[in-house]
Every structure is written in structure tokens, then in C-alpha cells.
Write a structure and sequence with these properties.
- Strands 8-9-10-7-11-12-13-14 form an 8-stranded mixed sheet, covered by helices on one side. Strands 3-2-1-4-5-6 form a 6-stranded parallel sheet, sandwiched between helices.
- The protein folds into 2 domains: about 120 residues, Rossmann fold (3-Layer(aba) Sandwich); about 160 residues, Dihydrodipicolinate Reductase, domain 2 (2-Layer Sandwich).
- The protein is built from 9 helices and 14 strands.
- It is α/β, with parallel strands linked by helices.
- α5 packs antiparallel against α9 and α7 crosses α9.
């Protein structure tokens, strides 16, 4: 059975994920929705979709759409996700699910109340090397985890009304990049006991850069750096009492996992950068076929918990 997707949004990520859907043998893009009908029409043609809609509501109401992929800016997610859930559509929403904890909580509540499927599009969790690292940590191969250091940053040209810098669009380094560092720390170590944030703000009031220190009752710590003004290594290093593991060249879509657990360094390679996109899309299909309303790999409680850490950090920074 082919899963029929509707893509909401026409930005870069909509093109990238839409192309993965269109190339998948068990999926197809049947509609594209945007506030700009011309852009929706162009992307629909590119992806081989039969329909283009000039509003989000029209796409959600399209009877041919079974699942909706939401790729609008963070601050606009809720206005698409909630009506889609109310209409009984399955929803895959780009990370972060929303730009505020309370909105993320509300969407999770609506999903549970309607029985409609909802999952945050955290493609990092579906990368095979990230999943392998998770298994190493859970299996005790690295021993007791003592520290994690993850960085993600690049210099982005300042534009007060651009997606990365405009608070009305959910801009800022934490929402766009920190969602990855925080989610990785939570994935491997669970909910932190304490969160401390330092950094600097852009003229628009969003975070230009930040460093978070998370700590756990076990004594483990995580140093998480994200920046829109500096190019950071993009690696994640996990250190345990028996060894260490490093994801690179960018930990959220890694091509290499390097581990040392018995004196010898071992390289594990993934040659498909888009593997995470494929994985998250196939997880939606798997869950729908199994009658599930949320994913065990990316559950709603995890989305809410990560949003809580991001909210706490942004409050400390005055963002």
C-alpha cells in the first residue's frame, strides 16, 4: 500500500524531504500546500504531485492526503498541525515541533484526544549511527556515561526578518540548532536535573549563540554549544567509564561513528546522509500500519521534554 503525503511549505527542507518521499517505492506526494499558490504549484510539479493548494487548510482538507509533512517555520507549525490532527490526518512535523513548550504540550494533547498520529521530524534519531550509539550506551559498552560534548554552529548572515533571526518566525540558535544538541543529550542520558545557559542575543532578541550545561544526579554532565555566528566542529563526543564514542562530521546526520571500548579505535561508517529522512518516513508508515498513534523511537513525551529544556534555557538567556 502506498502512503499518500501532503507537503506543507515550499522551503529547502520541504524540497529535500519531499524528494525522499517521491523517490520511495511505497510513498508518494499527492499534494503541496503553501500560502503562495505559485510556489506550491512549482514544488508539486517537481515532486510529481497531482494537486497544489494556496492555503494550508485546503491541503489538510484534501481527501487524497493520508499523512501531512509540515515544513513551515517553527512558529507556524501549530496552525497547521492542530487542524490536520482534528481532520484525522497523520502528521510528521519538522523539529522543533513548536517554538514554545505550551504549544508543544497542546499538540500532544490534541493528538492523544483525537487518536491521530503525530511525530516530531527529528531525523537524527533515525540515523543508523545515532541508533548504534544509543545501543552502545544502553548496553553498557561505554560503561557509566560521565560526559557529553556536542557542538553545532555556522555563521549565518544577519537578517532581522529572516527565518533564523526573526522571533516571529521562531528564530534563534537554540530552536534551530540547540534542539539537536539537547535532544541527543536527553536521548542518551535521560531528563537532566539542572540546566544552565549562557550566551549572547542578536538585535532582534533571539539567541545568536549559547552554551548549555546540563547535569544529572549520576554526576554526568553535558556541554552543548550552538551558534549562528561561528562555525563549530559539529561533532558529539560521549565519554564513559569504559570508553568513548564520537559522531562526525555533523552529529545530527553523521557519516562516521568512532568508538574506543577496549584499547582499539573502531570506525563505523554510514554513506547515506539522507538515511535519517528515510528512517523517519518509514517509521510513520510502520506506525500507521500497526495502528499506533505515536512512535516509540520519537515519542510525544520526548518532544515535550526537549521543548521544556529549550524554554528553560531561553528564559535564562532572556531571549
Amino acid at each position: 500500500m502506498t502512503l499518500a503525503w501532503g507537503v506543507v511549505g515550499t522551503g529547502r527542507i520541504a524540497h529535500d524531504v519531499g524528494a525522499v518521499i517521491a523517490a520511495h517505492p511505497a510513498m508518494e506526494v499527492v499534494a503541496v500546500g503553501s500560502r503562495d499558490l505559485a510556489r506550491a504549484t512549482a514544488l508539486a510539479f517537481e515532486l510529481g504531485a497531482a494537486s497544489a493548494h494556496g492555503s494550508y487548510a485546503a491541503l489538510v482538507a484534501d481527501p487524497a492526503v493520508q499523512a501531512v509533512y509540515v515544513a513551515t517555520p517553527h512558529a507556524a507549525h501549530a496552525e497547521v498541525v492542530e487542524p490536520a490532527l482534528q481532520a484525522g490526518r497523520a502528521v510528521l512535523c519538522e523539529k522543533p515541533m513548536t517554538h514554545r513548550l505550551e504549544e508543544t504540550k497542546r499538540l500532544a494533547t490534541v493528538a492523544r484526544a483525537t487518536g491521530a498520529f503525530l511525530m516530531e521530524g527529528m531525523w537524527m534519531r533515525f540515523n543508523p549511527l545515532v541508533r548504534q550509539l544509543q545501543q552502545l550506551v544502553r548496553g553498557g559498552d561505554l560503561g557509566e556515561i560521565r560526559s557529553l560534548h556536542a557542538t553545532f554552529g555556522f555563521p549565518a548572515p544577519y537578517d532581522a526578518v529572516g527565518r533564523l533571526w526573526d522571533p516571529a518566525l521562531g528564530g534563534g540558535a537554540l530552536l534551530d540548532l540547540g534542539v539537536y544538541t539537547v535532544d541527543l543529550a536527553r536521548l542518551l542520558l535521560g531528563p537532566p536535573s539542572h540546566v544552565t545557559a549562557v550566551g549572547s542575543l542578536a538585535p532582534t532578541g533571539v539567541e545568536a549563540e549559547s552554551t548549555l550545561t546540563l547535569s544529572w544526579d549520576s554526576g554526568a554532565t553535558a556541554l552543548l554549544e550552538q551558534s549562528l555566528v561561528a562555525r563549530l566542529p559539529g561533532t558529539a563526543l560521549v565519554v564513559g567509564s569504559r570508553g568513548w564514542a564520537e559522531l562526525s562530521p555533523s552529529f545530527h546526520a553523521p557519516l562516521r561513528l568512532r568508538t574506543q571500548t577496549s584499547g582499539e579505535v573502531v570506525d563505523h561508517v554510514n554513506d547515506d546522509r539522507l538515511a535519517g529522512f528515510v528512517g523517519e518516513l518509514e517509521e510513520v508508515a510502520r506506525c500507521l500500519n500497526a495502528g499506533l498513534t505515536q512512535s516509540e523511537v520519537m515519542p510525544l513525551d520526548d518532544s515535550v521534554a526537549t521543548a521544556g529544556v529549550l524554554d528553560q534555557a531561553r528564559r535564562q538567556l532572556g531571549a
